[in-house]
Design brief:
The complex is a heterodimer of chains A (about 280) and B (about 270). With about 280 residues, chain A is α/β, with parallel strands linked by helices. Chain A is built from 8 helices and 10 strands. Chain A has a 6-stranded mixed β-sheet with strand order 6-7-8-3-9-10, sandwiched between helices. A 4-stranded antiparallel β-sheet of chain A has the order 2-1-4-5, with helices on one face. In chain A, strand 7, helix 6 and strand 8 (about 190-195) form a beta-alpha-beta unit. Chain B has helices at about 1-40, 55-65, 70-100, 105-115, 125-130, 135-160, 165-175, 180-205, 210-215, 220-230, 235-260, 265-270. In chain B, helix 8 (about 180-205) packs antiparallel against helix 11 (about 235-260). Classes of the chains: A alpha/beta (about 280), B mainly alpha (about 270). Chains A and B meet through strand 6 and helix 3 of A and helix 7, helix 8 and helix 12 of B.
Chain lengths: ~280, ~270
């Protein structure tokens, strides 16, 4: 711990415009965030608020229109294994067995086969998937697929892990299990996590700090620090402090108890666009 | 323990067996209907069986061909033409398909002329094939090549263009460069489409065989079929057709089987959806 910790994120005056011509719109408006190394930050906001856009800029898949995004002082220029991405729908390679999927990052680094498979085995153990090394992704359940995805990102020892509603497609039971697993894994690996969700419970349960975003154009409208002791367990969700904070978040996301109108669906709905 | 596993096996095999029997029965029924129609010289107005040889005659002609020493020469000539054309179409079709699928510029440059050539039937290529290739053997291979090329090309393009962009994004995030994205993501993701193209292309190469072997020669199943027509040996026409059908289906299935063996993950994925 005496070394300088890695994984510091500095976003300064970030603007991002998406779409072209008349369809163009501002997805992010003047966003500035600083995240400490090893911090767990949740971005909470209504759908279409630009959370995914922010993550895309951090990942290096989207270019800022103005402002800077830095990790450990270096500007983000394109995707890099130092910044691992996990999506809601897994992006495992269906033609690779679980073990080879996890080892993929090391293969890209030129690590020889025996060594990278040994490391991949270790990581599968870490996410509790021993015995599934030779399965194909399609043979696993949704929760298991996300565990493989997390292991595949972690093998690169990323400074930052970017998670875009990673448990959004799972049933409630599995989701809770995965949240506990993620916290357990994170306590054993030195990495910063930026986690997107629109689930208030999830954000409160996981994060050191929650950043709440406004509807489009996305801005940070509130910052909540959470001092719940770690390790955290499901009982936390029934504590009075948890409920108080939840009420606070609800009020911010649904002001004056009004029903927030559904976001307008245009052909340029702000989804992450990838350079292929 | 043992009896219960047997039971499960039975439950699995029984319907499979029933379906197989049904399929065989269907083929037999068709042949019986044909036998009846040709033996009574049935005339349905629109279509008539008055001059159509019966299955029995075809069978006798087939027996004659099978016993003839020429059969092996016919088969060797035809399969080498089909496989020659198919191999060339595989190289050209997959190669062009990969670059066209990946680059919009190359798609604009290469695809329009190819699309213009696509609707031209193999038979219309015969005069040009004769003019372009000094060897008649090569011009026949060219015809089967034309037959196999487009299914392979179009399926490859389709396979490449439908690669999930998220997989590419995630590969890049995991440290893949352009080359690795191509070999690790695009090729395997397009592989099922390519195999489908190869399997269809194999079929269409056989489909063009009679056309190809009209060009010349003394040997080949297509030549045998065509020359039987010219000298009015009607049962032999049927024999030639059957041989082409059986070999075309067989080699097409073979490609599919090889593809499935190389892509076990693909079958698993399809079973689930």
């Amino acid at each position: 711990m005496s070394d300088t910790l890695q994984g510091r994120i500095d976003i300064d005056g970030l603007h991002i415009r998406l779409g072209q011509g008349k369809q163009a719109f501002e997805a992010l408006h003047n966003v500035s965030i600083s995240i400490e190394p090893g911090e767990f930050v949740c971005l909470l906001g209504p759908s279409g608020c630009g959370k995914s856009t922010l993550l895309g800029a951090l990942a290096g898949h989207l270019q800022p229109s103005a402002g800077t995004v830095r990790v450990d002082g270096a500007p983000v220029q394109g995707p890099h294994p130092d910044r691992g991405l996990v999506f809601q729908q897994h992006t495992l390679f269906p033609w690779k067995r679980v073990l080879d999927n996890v080892a993929f990052g090391l293969k890209m680094k030129g690590v020889e086969r025996a060594a990278r498979l040994a490391q991949a085995r270790e990581l599968l153990k870490l996410v509790g998937l021993e015995g599934f090394e030779d399965s194909y992704p399609s043979q696993l359940s949704g929760g298991m697929q996300q565990r493989v995805e997390i292991a595949r990102v972690l093998i690169n020892h990323p400074r930052v892990m970017l998670m875009d509603e990673p448990f959004g497609a799972l049933d409630a039971q599995t989701r809770l299990k995965m949240q506990e697993l993620l916290l357990d894994v994170w306590s054993r690996v030195q990495t910063t996590i930026v986690f997107i969700t629109h689930d208030i419970d999830e954000a409160l349960f996981l994060a050191d700090r929650i950043l709440i975003m406004s509807p489009r154009p996305g801005r940070i409208i509130e910052e909540i620090r959470l001092d719940f002791a770690r390790p955290r367990h499901a009982e936390l969700m029934t504590s009075s402090e948890f409920t108080r904070l939840k009420r606070h978040c609800l009020a911010l996301l649904h002001p004056e108890g009004k029903v927030i109108p559904l976001p307008l669906v245009t052909s340029a709905t702000p989804r992450l666009q990838f350079a292929t | 323990m043992n009896s219960s596993t047997l039971n499960i096996a039975d439950q699995f095999w029984q319907p499979q067996l029933n379906r197989l029997l049904l399929r065989v029965a269907s083929v037999i029924a068709c042949i019986l209907a044909w036998q009846w129609a040709s033996s009574v010289h049935a005339d349905f107005g629109l279509v008539t069986f008055q001059n159509v040889p019966s299955p029995k005659e075809a069978l006798l002609a087939a027996g004659e061909l099978i016993q003839s020493p020429k059969l092996i020469t016919h088969l060797v000539a035809s399969t080498s033409r089909v496989f020659g054309g198919f191999a060339a179409a595989t190289v050209v079709g997959i190669g062009l398909g990969l670059v066209i699928g990946r680059s919009r510029w190359l798609e604009d440059v290469l695809l329009p002329p190819l699309e213009m050539l696509r609707p031209i039937p193999a038979v219309a290529w015969i005069p040009l094939a004769i003019l372009m290739f000094p060897s008649s053997e090569l011009s026949m291979v060219f015809i089967t090549f034309i037959g196999a090329l487009f299914p392979i090309l179009l399926n490859t393009i389709h396979g490449v263009e439908n690669v999930d962009a998220r997989l590419i994004a995630s590969a890049r995030s995991l440290g893949s460069g352009r080359r690795a994205v191509f070999t690790e993501v695009i090729l395997p993701a397009a592989a099922p489409g390519i195999v489908t193209g190869l399997s269809i292309g194999m079929g269409t190469a056989w489909f063009c065989l009679v056309t190809a072997e009209m060009i010349s020669g003394q040997f080949g199943i297509g030549y045998y079929t065509w020359s039987s027509y010219v000298v009015q040996n009607y049962p032999e026409i049927i024999v030639g057709m059957l041989f082409i059908g059986v070999f075309g289906m067989g080699s097409s299935v073979l490609i599919k089987k090889i593809g499935n063996a190389l892509m076990p993950w693909y079958l698993l994925q399809r079973k689930k959806t």
